[in-house]
Amino acid sequence: MIAPRTPVAGVVLAGGRASRMGGRDKAFAAVDGEPIAVRAVRVFRELFPQVLISTNRPERFQDLGVETVADRFPGSGPLAGIHAALIASRYPHVFVAACDMPGLDPDVIRFLLARVGRADAVVPCWEGDIEPLHAVYAASALPDIEASLRAGRNAVRDVLRSLRVDYVSEAEMRAVRGAARSLTNVNTPEELAAVGGCFDDAS
Hints:
The structure is a single chain. By secondary structure, the chain is α/β, with parallel strands linked by helices. It has one domain: Spore Coat Polysaccharide Biosynthesis Protein SpsA, Chain A (Alpha-Beta Complex), CATH 3.90.550. Helices cover about 30% and strands about 20% of the residues. The protein has helices at about 35-45, 80-90, 105-115, 140-150, 155-160, 170-175, 180, 190-195; strands at about 10-15, 30, 35, 50-55, 65-70, 95-100, 120-125, 130, 135-140, 165-170, 195-200. The strands form two sheets. Strands 1, 4, 5, 6, 7, 8, 9 and 10 form an eight-stranded mixed beta sheet that branches. Strands 3-2-11 form a three-stranded antiparallel beta sheet. Strand 2 (about 30) and strand 3 form a beta hairpin. Helix 2 packs across helix 4 (about 140-150). The longest helix is centred in the N-terminal third of the chain and has 12 residues, at about 35-45. It is globular, with a radius of gyration of 16 Å. The chain starts with 8 loop residues before the first strand and ends in a 5-residue tail after the last strand.
């Protein structure tokens, strides 16, 4: 039996310029024969009752059959994508993942979702840092996020300082099978090649 989907919206953040990938759209790089965005949507459909793609190029994703939402603060990076997704969400929490994460793992995502409580965000720690683009955000974070965007402060990690954040320790994350793969992102051609990925001629 398939478990009921969690009452959280799943969001693929696909608003970046991909400058380190030579301008090619990371969302459509293929890993194991499947474009990253296609796999993310497939995984999210199993987990969430609402799936969104945060993008300013909705035409790129029209064949995936999911809602798209555009930034209200264009050019402001992933924080603007999180902001737009929280507004569009039908649920009080969203799980966001960057479009360059080819190994998103349902069990790792469920582990983070199980931490949802009174915090404004649930953010994993990884490799001595944090990973705010594989994390849960609550609607309660919207006022601080919008204030930060209006002030021109666009870094996600900066706005986290003003929020109540449940940071999941690296030790806890490493105890979850699949965490390393789920948290891997590919920002450069070299990182894409390291996970066996490539672009086809149409991407």
